[in-house]
Task: structure prediction
Amino acid sequence: MKATEFITLKDIAAMDIEPKGRFFSATDLEIERGLTSDIYFVRTRDLLNSLGLADTEVTAEVFSSKEGILAGMDEALHLLRNRELDIWALPEGSEMSAKEVVMRIRGSYSDFGVYETPLLGFLASSSGWATAARQCKQAAGDRTVVCYGARHLHPSVAPVMERAAVTGGADASSCILGALLMGRAPVGTVPHAAFLIVGDTVELAKAYDRFVPEGDPRIILVDTFKDETEDALRVAEALGSRLNGIRLDTPGERGGVTAGLVRETRARLDQAGFEHVRIVVSGGLQPERITALAEAGADSFGVGSYIARAPAIDMTMDLKEVHGKAVAKRGRIPGIIGNDRLVKVI
Result:
């Protein structure tokens, strides 16, 4: 397959992209042509081409600014497919340390230089999301963590974030496309809107039980109308052994979900003979709260903003060899940096 032709300065000058009638996110083709790159990389390629140096053989290395979980490598490698390059990389989901080389590229500069911007972007954003998800999973221990972060991001990158979250350790995700791209089923029940329209938690719970296929978990929100423990017991009595879990998502206006609320709900369910009913918690969770709520008796956690809003882990690409000769800009050590964990991928 022929590699996609990179955009040139002349192409950019002639472009007149109409913003109406489209989303502002980039298409696959726009990324592959270099339209999401910083202009100076296109200028560099055209300049080197005018000097007959665009095809200079170089070795570039990408390193991380801090420790975390590496993600986004699959997309980075997809971007570099069909080009005559030798590439070594840490596998997707690897733990990485600060300043560690996570990727090494050797080949003609003209084949990948324009891609520096999107390559670093793939790795930086996804690694930040994956690292946040790992922190949540570590706090939860053997309990379930589901990523609910899509609502906190531009929809064009929501599936990327949820994939990174699962790479980092989340057990499942709610975004449909994100889950399907991983070969998984999206996870989720129904929101408060359904309860408000029906008008009663138990009536909605009964309807949900009739509606969903056998084998799907019956997990019911219990904080819409009444005291959470009261509605948890009402739902448990109505569905009996068919109820898998209740979900607490108490808003911040009422203090949010606290360890005390979880502890009381767990005790009252157990006292009424509903030990099998799991407690699912969501709403502004972060690792410290997950730990406290797990100790109080929560079984599963829906995490959104903490993962979705995680800061990117900055990545840097440096040229380390030109024509096989060790080079580096001031402040960096010339030549490739050894890393036995790198795997030849292309």
Remarks:
- The chain has two domains: 9-127+312-344, 130-308.
- The first strand starts at residue 57 and ends at 64.
- The radius of gyration is 25 Å.
- DSSP finds 13 helices and 14 strands in the chain.
